[in-house]
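Box 3.1 A note on notation
Throughout this textbook, protein chains are presented in two layers. The first layer is the amino acid sequence; the second is a token string describing backbone geometry. Keep the layers aligned when reading.
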Amino acid sequence: MRSIMVVIGLLLVPALAGAATLEGLLSGYRSAGAGPFLAERGAELLVRETSGASEGASCAACHTRDPRQPGRHVKTGKPIEPLAPAVNPERLTDPAKVEKWFLRNCKGTLGRVCTPQEKGDFLQFLSTLR
């Protein structure tokens, strides 16, 4: 019985760490003047087509309209793991990686750095997916 409890506890650690990391990221964006965060705006950011970096670019072009599904990079064809932490517990567990990918993907899609508000809205959206 004790070993079952240990296994269950180990399975919960990544989920709890991800929740703590998500709240830490959102708290940082609030400190930068953003908030309140709305999942609806985050969902809109996923599908918004821009002319920033390239005409018709969108996050969904690579990540699909359903972040619970795997995606594929439109130029390289490289597979992309699902964005939603509900199906990919590795997501949102490393703040440095989250910021790195926001920087890279926002510049590549929007042609600019995402605002703290956009980042918070997008993370809020991802956190609602089950």
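The chain has a mean pLDDT of 85. The first strand starts at residue 71 and ends at 72.
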